[in-house]
Amino acid sequence: MGAIKDVVDLVIELESRITDRKTLDMLLPIKQKIHEAERENFNLEKSHFRIEKELHNKIESLKKSHSEEIAKVSSESFKLQNQITELESQIEKLESGRRKSKPRKRFPIVA
Asked: How much is the average pLDDT of 2-16?
């Protein structure tokens, strides 16, 4: 808002130097435009603040969702790893059982 303040200061300085009313009245449209610029600047700052707040809220929501999803995936991964370990254990038991059992006698197939 530095530029707007500079223009306001210039208008104030001009007003103090001008002595006739007609020339002074010529500054009125400039003062009105300055007021419009200040109002627009305020509205832009307000919108900017609102947008930043919305962005912050969305980022926080995404962080929370991401954290929850990571926890869910970790839990599922842990369960799957336990299932794999259990299946590997069962396979080892089956394989060791085959080694211990006597081989079956096979009869030739007659055609």
From this structure: 90
